[in-house]
Amino acid sequence: MAQLPARPLSLSRDQQEEPGSCQLFGQVPHLTVIHHSKLEITMLDRFGVSFGTEGGSISLVCTMVVVPDLPNVPPLAQWYRDDKLLKAGKLAEIKVGGGAATLTLPLLAKDDEGLYTLRMWTKDGTTEHSAYLFVKDAAPSVAGAPGAPISIKAFDINSDYVLVAWKPPNTTNEAAITGYFVDKRESGSATWSQCNDSPVRICKYPVHGLKVGHAYHFRVRAVNSAGISRPSRESDKVTALDPAERERLQVIKLDGKHEVVIKDDDLEGYVTLPGEPTDMHASEIFKSYIVLSWKPPSPRGRAPLWYIIEKSVSGTGAWQRINTAVKLQSPRYPVFDLEAGKKYQFRVYSENLYGASEASKPTDPIEKVDEHGVPSAPGQVVATRNTKSSVFVQWDPPKHPNHLMGYYIDASLVGSKTWAPCNHKPYKFVVHGLTPGETYVFRVQAVNVYGLSDESQESTPIAVEPALTTPSAPHGITMLSCDGASMIIAWNSPKHGGGSKINAYYVDKRDADSLAWKEVNSAPTKTRTYRVDGLTEGTFYEFKVQAGNLAGVGVPSAPSTPLKCEAWTSALPGPAYDLAFREVRGDSLVILWKAPVYTGASAVTGYIVEMAKKGHHYHPLNEEAIGHCYLQVTGLEAGAEYTFKVKAVNAEGVGKASQTSEPVVAKALPGTQEIQCGVDEDTGDIFLSFEACEISETSNFAWSKNYKEISDCPRVAIETKGKHSKLTFVNPDVSDLGAFSVHVTDTEGVSASHTLTEDALNTMLELSYNIRHPIVPLKHQLNYEVLEKGHVRFWLQCLKMSPAVTYRFIVNDKEVTSSDSHKISHDVNTGVIQMTVDHFSKASEATYTVQIHDGRAKNQSSLVLVGDVFKAALKEAEFQRSEHIRKQGPHFAEYLSYHVDDDCTVLLVCKVTNTFSRTCYLNSTFFLQFSRKDQGHYKAKLSDDRGKDTSILSVGVVVTSLPLLFLSGSSASELVLQCTPEGIRLQCYMKYYTEEIRTAWLHKDSKISSSEKMRIAGTAEMAWMQIREPSEKEKGHYSIQIMDATKSHTRTFDLSGQDRGRVVGGLPDVVTIMEQKTLSLTCTVWGDPSPEVTWFKNENEVVSTEHAKITLEANKFASLTITAVTSEDSGKYSINVRNKYGGEFVEITVSVYKQGESPPEAKIGGRGATPAPLASKTPAQTPTPAQTHIPQTPTPSLKSPTPSPKSPTPTAKSPTPTPKSPTPTRRVKSPSPARSLKSPTPPRK
C-alpha cells in the first residue's frame, strides 16, 4: 500500500479559462525554437492533499521558476490521474504560463478522486509532484438515499448491444443498496431513458435494442429503501457498430506503395444461405440474467444477416424461440426471464433474405445462478501515525476476494456511533483530512461487482499525531549585540518539531575564511538566544544551529551570513527579534516581538512596525511609536501574503530594523474558533473559554493579558482538558479589564483573543449575582379555584422544585398550618404547592401569601381576595355547595334537551342518576315527536325521601323546524343524472325536502332560475332540475347548494360530454347456425373511460359459463362464445355497453337449426345501435315517439308514529320512491350517467 505524503495545498477557484485555451503573454517574436528539454524548472508552491464535493470545482496549482522565461515558449506540463494522462476538455482545463501550471476540474464527480501528478520536462529530464484529491458525496436528493455509483464504462460493444459496468458507491450510515437503474441517451440529445424496469442487483447490465451506427452515453443510479441516488457521471461516448465488420477486411500492399482493401465477401464467392454460427456459450451468468455469445457464421454472404435464438429446458428436447420481437444483429443477447433452479440449453440460427442456416451446436446446460458473491470481510486493520492530519491504515486481504475491485475505508471518532467515508474510489491509501489530536478507529470493506463485503473488525484507537522524528533545521540566525569579544545571536525555531517538544539547541561556529566548525556549547540550551564568548575583534564569524527532541538531534541550519565581531557603540537601539504572529484571520492578525538586547544610548521608548504585501514596498503601519511589543494589524486582503519588520525607537532616533519576518498569509486555520466569554450557570463564575481546532501531544495553552503571559496569578484560575481551556476570574473587578489572549504551542498558530470591556463586565456581574443569589422560578403565580362541595383550593406552580423545598402560607399576616379545615401539601414532580379550605365563608376575605425556600433560592407570591373578586368566589363556592347537597338525592345528571333523529323525529331526552325504585317521576316526558302545535314548556321532576330535582325546557318554533333545517343538507346525496323523454334530469336525494328549504342551482358558477328550458322542482325526498332538449350549450359543471341553519352543503355534477360507451362494429343483425357448432359473437366497443359490457338473452343477463363464455380483451374486444349450440340457444341476444357518460344496446337474433335441415331464411334489414339510458334497468321494448310520456313521480308519505309509553324510542318510516324513466328511442343518446355507474341488469321473467 503506497503512502501519500502530505503537502501544502494551493487552491484557486476564480479562474474560468476556457478548456484548452492558451494565454499569450506579450508579443515577443518567436525567433528560435527552444525545446522543452532546454528549460530549467524549479517548483515552488506545490498543491497538497485536496478535498472537493460532487458538483463543485477545484484547481490544483503549482508555481515555478522557469529559465529562460519566455512567454511564447511555455514549458511542457503533463497532468496524470492515477498514472493516466489527462487531456484538456470540458471536464479538465489545463493552463501553463505566468509562472504556474494549473489544472481546473470545473464539475467534480467522485470519478475525479485519485492521485494527481504534475510532470514537467526539463533539461535534466523530468520533475514531478503528486498529491491526492478526495471528492465527497453531494447532498442526496432524498434523505438517506445512497451516493452515486462511479466508474461507468461500456464495453463488449456490438451493433445493437453493449455491456455497461460500474463500481458501487461507499455506504456508511445509509441503508444497504438494493439495486441499480441504468439510463441511456443518444449523443446530441438531452433526454435520458431508463433501460431496466426493475433494479439490477449486480454492477453490470447488458443493454440491447440499440440502433446501428448511433452513439450513446450511459449513467447509473443506485437504489435503497430510502430512495434513488443522484445519477453518476455519464460514460464516454460509444457507437453501436459490429466489431466483426473490421475483421472481415483484408489490406494487401502492392509494390510497397499502394493498398488494396478486400472484403471477405469478395473471397467467399456467391453465397446465398449463411453458414451456422459457432462457439455459442454464456459469457455472463448471474441470478438476474445471462448473456449469450457466439461467433458469426463463415461464410456469411453479402446479404444483411440476423440471428434467431432458441432455448430448451435441459433434457426435454423441446425448443422455443426467445427473440420473437427482436431482429437480432449482434452475436450477443441477454436473457432475463429464466426460471431459477432449471437448467437450459441454447442454440442459434443465422438468417438472411434467402433463408435460415442450420442450428448451431447447443450450449452445455446453463443454470441462472451467481458463480460468486461479495468478498469476505478484510482481516485485521492496523492504523499507524503519519502526519498531524493523516493516518496510515493497513489490513489483511479477505480470504475469499472473488474478483476484488478494491477497498473502502471508514473512520469514526472514538465514542461516536457515526461513521464517515474516507475514500470514494476503492483504492488503498493514507487516510487524510483527520482532525489533529482526535482519536479515531477505522474499518475496511472489500468491493467487487456484487457489492460491498461485511465490515472488518475495528482497528485499535489511534490519536492523530505526526510520526516521531527529529526536528527540522532552525533558521533566521541574526546578531542582537556585540561588545568586541562576544556576540549575542538569536534564531527562529524549526518549522517542523518532529512530533515532540524541542528541548535542546546546539550552536557551532567557524571563521568565515575557515571550513572547520567548532562546537560552541557542549551542554544544550533551551532558549533561542545565546551569548558566544571568546571571539576575536574584527573577525568575521559564521554560525549554525541544531535542534533536538526525544527522537534525537536534527539537521543543522544553513550557515548564517558572516557576522563581524565589532563592538556596537551606536546611540540608536539594536534590532527587535523573535517576530511571531497570533490570531491570523482573513483580514487581520497580531504581530509580537521581543525588545532589542542592545538599547543604545538611552532606553527604548517605542516601536515602528513596517509591512509589505508580496510584490510591494514596505511602509510603516504606525506614525507614532507604540510602547508595547505587539500590534494588531487590520485591513488585510484575504489570502494575500505579507512580511513585517520592526524598528525600536529611543531618544536618539529610530534604530536598525529587525530581520524580516516569515511570510504570513491572511487566512484563518480551518475550524478556527474565538474565545467565548460567559457566566457559569451553576456557580456564577465569570470565565473565558477556548476550544482549539487542533492540538498535539506536546501542546500547551498559554494565556496572556495584554499579550503578557499569565503565570501564577491569584486573580484567575486556568483549567485545561483536551482541546478545551478555561480561564475563570476570582472576584473580578475593573482591574481585570483588558485584552485576554491564548495561543496553543506546537501548532500551526492556533490562537484567539477577547477584550473584556467595562459594560460587558457589569452585565456579567449582575448575572453572576442572580445565579449566586437565586430565586425559585414560578410557572404560575398564586391562584384559586372552587371545587365541588364548595371547597376552595389555593395553589401555585414552580418550574422546578427539589425534595428539600420548604414553604408557608400566610393569611392576613398570620401563618396558617395544615389542619382539617386547611389542608396544605406539595408535589415535587409537578412543582405544585396548594392549600384547600373546606368551609369558605365571609370570614375568608383576606390577602393570601406563599413564601418558598429551596436551597439558596427563594420566592413568594400573593393573592388579594377582597371586594368584588371575593364576592364572585364566595358565590361560586355556595353554588357548588348547594349542587353537592342536591346530588345527595335523586337528580338530573343531564337536564332536558332535544335531539333530532335520523328519521326526522325530535326527541326530548334527559339523564337521571342516584335513583331508587321508590323514586317518583312527575310530569316527565322523555321522547316526543314534534310538530308546530307542540311548542311550549316541558317539565320533568324527580323526588324521594332523600330530596327532589326539577328540569324545565322551553320549546319554540325553531326547535320544531330542526328536522327540516339540519337533515336536509347533511343527508343530501351526490347529484345523479336521470334520462327522460324530454331530456335529462339532475336529482339530489335527501331524507326530508320541501320547497321551504333554501336551495340554489348553478351552471358554471352562475345561478339558474326555473324556466321552460330548465325547470326546478322537487318531491318529499329529492330536489331536481329538468333540462329539456339538452344541447352543446348546456354542457358544463352543475351544482346545487342546500342551506340549513348553520352551514351550506354543495353537491356537484360534471356534464362535460366525454365519450359514452358504444359498439363500434362487428356484430350482425341475424345469425343462423347448425346444432353442435360454436357460435362466436364478437364486436369492438369504445368509450372514455373504458365502458362496462353486459350480455343478455331474451332480456335476461347472461352469466359466463363453460358453455357460454364471455370475454373482454384490452377493454376493447367483447365476445360471447357458445360451444355446441342447441335449439335452446336460439333467441334474441343483446349487448349493453356503457360508462358514466352513457351507452347503447345492440340486438342480434340467433336461430339454431338441426343437421340436415335447411338454414332458416334471414330477415333483410340494417342493424341499429340503441343508445341505452343509464337510469333504465331493462333493455325493454322501445316506445314510439307518440307513446313517450313524462313519468309521474309518486309523492312519498312521511309517517311519524306517536311513541307509546312502553316504547320510549319511536321509529319513523320514510319510504323512498324509485323514480322511473322509460327507455328512449334507439337513436337517443344518453349523455350522462345515472345514480349507479354499473350496467343495469334486466329483470328475469
TrEMBL record:
InterPro entries named in the record: FN3_dom, FN3_sf, Ig-like_dom, Ig-like_dom_sf, Ig-like_fold, Ig_I-set, Ig_sub, Ig_sub2
GO terms (BP aspect): sarcomere organization
Location of the region described as Disordered in the Swiss-Prot/TrEMBL record: 1157-1245
Keyword Repeat attributed: yes
Keyword set includes Repeat: yes
Biased composition (Low complexity): 1178-1201
SMART domains: FN3, IG, IGc2
Domain Ig-like: 29-117, 1075-1151
Domain Fibronectin type-III: 148-243, 276-372, 377-467, 470-568, 575-671
Position of the signal peptide: none
Key words of the record: Immunoglobulin domain, Repeat
One GO location term (cellular component): M band
Membrane-crossing residue ranges in chain numbering: none
Name of the protein in question: Myomesin 2a
Lineage, top ranks: Eukaryota, Metazoa, Chordata, Craniata, Vertebrata
Originating gene: myom2a
